[in-house]
Amino acid sequence: MGTDITNNLLAWYDRHARTLPWRTPPGSGATPDPYRVWLSEIMLQQTTVAAVKGYFERFTARWPTVDALAAADDAEVMAEWAGLGYYARARNLLACARTVAARGGFPETEAGLRTLPGIGPYTAAAVASIAFGQRAVVVDGNVERVMARVFDVTTPLPAARAEIYAHADALTPDERPGDYAQAVMDLGATVCTPRSPACVICPWREPCQARARGVQADRPVKLPKREVPQRRGVAYVGRREDGAWLLETRATDRMLGGMLGWPGSAWDRGEEHADPPAPGDWVTLNVEARHGFSHFGLTLKVLVARLPRDAEPRRGAFVPASDFRPGQLPTAMRRVLDVALTSPLITNPEWIVPD
Q: Containing H/E element for 92?
């Protein structure tokens, strides 16, 4: 293996590269925009390409440059990010944009990129390779799977990562490193898929050691998943008689920090109960809201109340119905709203008195 296998993949990529809104097509002669490359890589962390496309297009339409993003209001960026999950990424995104704007542009080396907020080894390698043509070894989940199959790596993940990195390093070329990195990722995403890999059309079919041994579906080897811990909490959805919603911005040192949400318990810290955020006749609904985070599952008891016009909240503030956008809520909070909307206390138009 070596140069031949790398060249075969690049030739395949020239014909079959995915068309993505942040990507410069191979052979186009266009120079990749570091801002778009970086933004896409941050968005794609723990998120699918299909989910990211719409967010990326909205972000770049609203903030077309890193300077524009750096000057954006925190709350507006967090609202635009809502639904993508892993919200610390959005806070790091702003911190990184402001650092880059202050220094006059992105560093062009992997080591320089590692100094920026929110950029780890993978993202630094990807941006250095794709945006700046630097030779860097890019290893994401797709690349791990491809390398584990091509070289029939039998060590289970995550222990196999050093071995997989060494294989990826050996195949990474000095020329067209960005195209090569994207080619391996495309191969994993479209051909060498987790289940039922399409070996018959794979450009690396012949050198693939796992395929030759008939074990490609069993690579990479993974240890049994541990049982996901479960947490419980409570969320209060209050609506005033003029239709305004009682919401709060979560503290930045909390999960979903900086995001809009419903007042409730500190479930991210193990707190299951909390006092109501405003005086009122709170009703517990018989359906609970459920959401899965990366390292625990969450079940929230939902309480709703119709609140008087003169209600004075102990937590949060009222947001007029005309200003409330459910899409600005993170997914966990939208699931709370979905449950709350089953109650006529929240949806009944008869008590929404127009101004």
A: helix 88-103
pLDDT of the residue at 247: 97
- For residue 88, the model assigns a pLDDT of 82
CB 217 within 8 Å of CB 197:
yes
Non-local CB neighbours of 250 within 8 Å, separated by 6+ positions? 256, 257, 258, 259, 260, 261
Going along the chain from its start, the domains and CATH numbers come out as: 3-218 (1.10.340.30), 230-351 (3.90.79.10)
Which residue in the list 41, 80, 110, 248 is annotated as catalytic? 41
Distance CA 127, CA 66 (A): 14
CA dist list (Å): 229 to 83, 85, 129, 179, 270: 22, 19, 38, 40, 11
Tens-place pLDDT, residues 101-129:
999 999 999 999 999 999 999 999 999 99
41 is an active site residue: yes
Query: What is the identity of the amino acid at 251?
Result: A
Residue 170 CA to residue 148 CA, distance in Å, equals: 14
Task: Indicate the pTM of the whole model.
Answer: 0.77
